[in-house]
Write a structure and sequence with these properties.
Strand content of chain A: 5-15%
Helix content of chain A: 25-40%
Order of helices and strands of chain A: HHEEEEHEEEHHHHHHHEEHEEHHEEEEEH
Largest sheet of chain A: 8 strands, mixed
CATH class of the largest domain in chain A: Alpha Beta
Shape of chain A: globular
Largest interface: A-B, 37 and 37 residues
Number of helices of chain A: 14
Number of strands of chain A: 16
Distance between the termini of chain A: 56 Å
CATH architecture of the largest domain in chain A: 3-Layer(aba) Sandwich
Structural class of chain A: alpha+beta
Low-confidence stretches of chain A: 1-20
Oligomer: homodimer
CATH topology of the largest domain in chain A: Beta-lactamase
CATH superfamily of the largest domain in chain A: DD-peptidase/beta-lactamase superfamily
Number of domains of chain A: 3
Strand order of the largest sheet of chain A: 2-6-5-16-15-14-13-12
Mean pLDDT of chain A: 92
Radius of gyration of chain A: 20 Å
């Protein structure tokens, strides 16, 4: 079971706090050397054994296989469709600009360019939308414009958006106890938590990410949800929901931000219970069909057909950019108010900086985490997922950037020093002279 | 391992010869009683245990769960997308007619109506296209117009169509030995077989469907391809291709038609090897994108990402009807010649009746099996899949019928006596007075 452990290791780094361990990125093949097309991953009838990427041995979660698998998740796992409907895709105007040479200085004081930033972060694709027009769109590795790519924890922001919509419709009360909606969690860490604490990830829940311990909860989460195969003979919960019912309390709620994916799975449970709809249908009816998405999206599902709200969304880059534009435009896109402006304002307002600061994210000074979105105090905000998934929404700069990646290290803190200043540089460049 | 055995039993009946064992259909819940919506299968957050349909316990292949799962296969298994492209769907004119009361007499001499025939065969949906216009379209159970439904062995006809196209392009020689294209099969039953014998299923291959024997090849096929979970501790091939490499010869080639799904998996291997493209890409580029399909289709894939050419296609009914129309119109549809007319004529010409007769299909007198299609001597032909999947192409009557079902018994011979005369009755009714 070597590979799942490696995968867990990467995830462990990712979902822990900001202080990433020192990582020598030079030991990993770079963007060109890890290119899945050049390396003929999964090419051949059949592909040779050393080019196979499979769920059964966990190799789908192992770099550089991830450079292929993150654009092909449905081929290794069961998934549920997020239907775009039968209407025409919404139109995206284009005004392409050469941005590769845009120069900036990264957080470590190194002079870089936008093009270099993309390569140095193992980017699979990026779309830059300025004033509603696509000014830059590139694909690398295995990704193509019509391929859904796994969005990892960007998924959480979609669940948070749905929860906030339900809140503003009066159907979900953030101050209510979790157990009002999911009584099954009464005997767990969530027995005395509020929905608000779940939405902002300030619960005290024992959720170990010590991958050296085969009983660590992160291992249970990933195998319960079938992200990874279970070790032989393991007795583990067979679904996300069954896993959540095993969680114990650790510390107190409401003291500090603590990023734990299980909070989102709880929120996803609440959202589905309150709405009476499964997550794929919610995303389809409330977002995908109204946005005029170009392609269906899909969600990874566990062995009981439950979608992963914590990290299971797969979508095309352009459709992610549509979501970003909708947020930038206060919920209005494709000729209709898709999300109430008050919902977007609520999310963008952020949460308590003091609680966020306790988590020690050095690359995100003065940010907060609110309703499953990452909110800067500079007027922009993000949906963020490990390995480099992002929707960057910057209303002041009239800018949206959607990006997918397959970085060798899960932790975004490893690539933040390069990529976050790059987003800012693009914002500045596109609005120069204004 | 009760459920996989039941599934295998059903498949065994299906893939064996025509002589179905006596079946008391009255013991199965009828269309209404087995309705997955009425029974709330897979409804709830989470669905209660007795409403769960899962791959892990084989319950996705157990009636009446199949009434849900056959419209939701991607939610229980990994799949590969068949992309429809970004163009507009082709237009289907409509001229709806009331056909439910069309009366006829079935093969057993029982007076029936079209509407009754659909219900008595556990139909999930049907589209009737007359002179290019949809005259009848209905959905039952879990199926909706935009849901891909598993096509079972209708898939084979798509592989056969691709093979015939490659033949007419001079890329595939039916008289060549299989080993010219797949030398890996030299030491198997296919070592001295020709491509033609594989295309028309006249190989002598030991492929037991004795489900009481856990070592029977059908069990190996289904578990190797991950249609069903393997029994604990079983040492089985991990892919379709690895399984094919284990097949031994039994009897002589070219003596008689013998319907064995493994022949199609061999043909699928050949088609992919010759074209240098995987089956999902072939179907997308050569058919789906040219047809102007309404929705993406998808293929079930095994643990190595290899699509099942034997039974893995899932598509919407209307897109199946588009394929049928394209065949009826000698390969021309959506304003372009998608398949050469000579390819369609080749398929429709059928094969050797004497070889087919040896298999004893009493419901298919004077039919043949050619290039993976079922050809009547009355001028119409079909793609057929177990549990009631069909594309019925009747150029003389300017008629195409696409149908999906989830009959409790796999064998089409059980429902042929009701449904085949019903197709003929619809043909006669629509062309009355001509």
């Amino acid at each position: 079971m070597k590979s799942p452990l490696i995968a867990c290791a990467l995830l462990a780094i990712a979902t822990g706090a900001s202080a990433a361990p020192p990582v020598d990125l030079a030991k990993f093949p770079d963007t060109a050397a890890s290119d899945p097309k050049a390396n003929a991953l999964m090419v051949g009838t059949p592909p040779p054994p050393d080019k196979l990427v499979r769920w059964a041995d966990g190799s789908h979660f192992r770099f550089p296989n991830t450079r292929w698998s993150f654009s092909h998740m449905r081929e290794v796992m069961p998934t549920a469709d997020v239907w775009r409907g039968s209407g025409k895709p919404s139109h995206f105007a284009r005004a392409e600009q050469k941005l590769d040479t845009v120069a900036y200085t990264d957080m470590d004081g190194i002079a870089r360019t936008w093009g270099e930033a993309l390569a140095k972060t193992w980017t699979d694709g990026v779309v830059v939308v300025h004033r509603g027009r696509i000014v830059y769109e590139k694909y690398f590795g295995a990704l193509e414009p019509h391929f859904p790519h796994i969005a990892m924890s960007v998924t959480k922001s979609f669940v948070g958006l749905l929860a906030t919509m339900l809140e503003h419709e009066g159907k979900l009360d953030p101050s209510a106890p979790v157990t009002r909606y999911v009584p099954e969690l009464a005997a767990t860490a969530y027995g005395d938590a509020t929905v608000r604490q779940v939405m902002d990830m300030t619960t005290g829940v024992q959720y170990s990410e010590n991958y050296a311990d085969p009983k660590a909860e992160i291992f249970g989460y990933m195998t319960a949800g079938a992200f990874l195969p279970a070790p032989p003979g393991a007795e583990l919960p067979g679904s996300f929901f069954d896993f959540l019912k095993t969680l114990k309390k650790e510390g107190e709620h409401d003291q500090a931000f603590a990023y734990k994916t299980v909070n989102t799975e709880v929120l996803s449970w609440i959202v589905q219970r309150v709405s009476g709809q499964a997550l794929p249908q919610l995303l389809a009816q409330r977002l995908w069909q109204k946005l005029g998405a170009e392609e269906d999206a899909y969600l990874l599902v566990d062995r009981t057909g439950t979608a992963s709200g914590g990290g299971g969304l797969n979508a095309t880059l352009r459709d992610m950019a549509r979501v970003g534009e909708m947020m930038r435009l206060k919920g209005r896109f494709n000729g209709q108010q898709i999300v109430p402006a008050a919902v977007v304002a609520d999310i963008a307002a952020g949460a308590d900086q003091a609680k966020f600061a306790k988590a020690g994210y050095t690359t995100l000074p003065n940010w907060t985490y609110h309703n499953q979105w990452w909110i800067s105090d500079q007027g922009y905000y993000m949906a963020r997922g490990i390995y480099g998934q992002a929707i960057y929404v910057d209303p002041k700069s009239e800018l949206v950037i959607a990006r997918f990646g397959s970085h060798p290290i899960a932790a975004n803190s490893v690539q933040d020093p390069i990529i976050l200043p790059a987003y800012r540089a693009i914002a500045k460049h596109l609005n120069r002279g204004r």
